[in-house]
Batch of 2 targets.
Target 1
Amino acid sequence: MSVTVRNFEERDAERVARIMFESFKTFLGDRIKEPETPDYWIQCSTRDFAHSVTRSFVAESDGKVIGYLCATANTKNGLGTLNVIGVDPACFAQGCGSALFAAADAFWRGLGMRKIYTCTSHVNLRAQAYYKKMGFVEEGRLKDHFHEGIDEIQLSKFMKKG
Ligand SMILES: CC(C)(COP(=O)(O)OP(=O)(O)OC[C@H]1O[C@@H](n2cnc3c(N)ncnc32)[C@H](O)[C@@H]1OP(=O)(O)O)[C@@H](O)C(=O)NCCC(=O)NCCS
């Protein structure tokens, strides 16, 4: 599958809302009831304030949006955050997540980030394998965090210099 990545635009919001709902349902099941609104995704995709810069990317294949990643860079302390990523479940394991990560990686490097943080649910084995492949290691756990009965694994990656 040929995947290209570009910056998120407002016209992507409806499709992104659907992808995020379907992809998160794959590990949260009925805990996730309905999609966030397109406006939610517009608002959280590019929200710069003080030292915090947020950029979002979509992956496309055959002209169709199939994935989304939202990343933040704190230019004061050098900490980048992978806020959220989701791929259309029909396109899992075909390189879309890797292509989105490469775009975020270039964004973080461009702003001189020294460390990247994210977290994932303990039941989400697919994402754990993905983050490990992207170079993240576990730093800690948060009990019953976003949902009762689901712990969050805190993951980080130190950026190599040069
Ligand atoms: C996690 C997710 C973003 C990965 O995206 P993807 O497009 O499937 O990932 P890729 O095809 O680029 O795979 C990259 C690497 O991740 C790992 N990986 C991906 N899926 C895997 C699976 N089912 N089992 C084991 N490893 C897997 C592999 O190491 C893979 O590298 P390889 O192809 O060289 O073996 C996607 O599965 C997803 O959207 N999941 C639901 C939403 C989600 O969990 N988001 C993160 C919540 S914190």
Target 2
Amino acid sequence: MNWDRDKVQHMASLLRRQVNADVNVDHPLTGLNSWKVGGCADLLVRPRCLAAAQQLFALLAAHRWPWIVLGSGTNVLIADAGFPGVVVQLSHLKHIKMLTPGQYHVEGGVSLGELVRVCAERGDSGIEDLAAIPGSVGGAVVMNAGAGEHTFGEVVTGVHAVLNGQPAYFEGAELKFGYRSSAVGPQMCILAIEIQLQTTERDICVSRRKQALEYRKKAQQVFQPSAGSVFRNLPGTCAWKLIDSCALRGCKVGGAQVSPQHANFIVNTGNAAAADVAELIAHVQREVYRKTGVPLETEIRYLN
Ligand SMILES: Cc1cc2nc3c(=O)[nH]c(=O)nc-3n(C[C@H](O)[C@H](O)[C@H](O)COP(=O)(O)OP(=O)(O)OC[C@H]3O[C@@H](n4cnc5c(N)ncnc54)[C@H](O)[C@@H]3O)c2cc1C
């Protein structure tokens, strides 16, 4: 659906009147994703509290306005045409509250790295390995973000969400966490979660977190804009090895390049369009399939 400018302005004023939120019209999304590509959102809406977020989704459902949630934009490819509709970002929802020892209520806009820091400082263990993963808690649930032996889904015990405009609660197990996947569908927004960690010694947690950050610094020497690993690993086979075996490291389309440092990363060398990134992804998939017979699937999500 493409809205005319009058309709977008009308929606913006309605949202400003009825929801406690920042509402921006024709907002560029380039600065809101780690690839630094993509066009504008007709509307970018950032609710200022949980209640406002619930009101917002009820309104979006009532008017049947198309929407998507953008976390920190570290695992998405946003089209050059932007998003025709409402992009919701929970960047104001940043509260972390301890409920009982080791148990936390965490809003969806908290950064995962910050959550790991706060929990480690309190001696609560279980997510230190995830310290270097960029992005928000909401995105980490959807993607079941993971590093080392651990994934975020392992500690998620409950999810407060909005589904089709209605408040909804899910037990962690209902979200069917898998390898970089969950059962969170496109009509659901995660507003807050509960996690359960193991209470242990503060120094142990702090040192594990530090090790995870240091390991990442050494292992991922990629300094250009990227979305981390683009392709999913296959059982027993790393995607980067397949890409390397097809001599695709360093391969370029426009301003997008298969990283010379890490063959499963695609970097923006400075002036890439989203279309360059998308074309390079498709080229890698085609070449790997042609030469090895393996169909590579993407880990990143397309927002368009
Ligand atoms: C340099 C780099 C390194 C990385 N390393 C790792 C790694 O080691 N392990 C790993 O697992 N990932 C890694 N990633 C990928 C990425 O950081 C994770 O997938 C992260 O969890 C995505 O969070 P986000 O907030 O940026 O989500 P986004 O990229 O904004 O969104 C991802 C998906 O989740 C949806 N979404 C986001 N928030 C919500 C919400 N509140 N409710 C409903 N849907 C939502 C979006 O619509 C989208 O479909 C890396 C990325 C980069 C750039």
